[in-house]
Amino acid sequence: MRFHQYIPLFIVSLSTILLVSCGSGSSSETSPKNRYEVESGEVSYRLDGMQQGYETLYFDQWGAREARYTKAILRLGTGVEQEIDRLILTDKEWVYTIDFLEKTGTKTRNPAYDKKQADTNLDVRDLSRINGQKLYKLGGQKTGQDQVADLPCEVWEVKRLAAKFWIWKQLVLKREPKIKTERTIIREAVRVTTGKPIPSDKFALPKDIKIQDLNKEGLRN
Known about the structure:
This protein is mainly beta. It has a single domain, classed as outer membrane lipoprotein receptor (LolB), chain A (Clam), CATH 2.50.20.10. Helix content is 14%, strand content 44%. It contains four helices and twelve strands. It is globular. Mean pLDDT is 80; it is low at 3-32 and 117-127.
């Protein structure tokens, strides 16, 4: 097992926490049945700050199924870096995390399908799949309008997350912390494509990696 193996997973959960969504119109008025207001799409993000690299998001079924591929370098300290090559796949009630470098994978239940978590909407695991509706429920406030990747976004500020979000169609196209430091991560969409079918292989799990079911592991412990 490599040094600092779990540090990037925690950081990504915390930062992807603050990312997956962006929307026009009041978030409180959007139908809760769909995560996004777009049926399918592809979003390319640039990562800056503590993580340097790129991320590509593919989604269909109005966000019920999505795949987030990340290729980046994580800067852990002076002269200490770690490569990231990962897939986070959400397929309705299941969430898979694949580390292509370590050849490992995990599977866990999507908290959005857990009635108790759905009622509170505040579980930290669910934040990695945040959208405009949840920003509203987290006490977010609309502070203005701006453009990201040539698309009109609502700018939202969430004090409890200490971050600002640029939202289009319930998709977060940009996220940045209120206070930028060498330990923060900024994500910003550089290209957005919608309305085209997403190839099924983008949502396929690698056949050469064994998936550990964390739900079953938890029941044993």
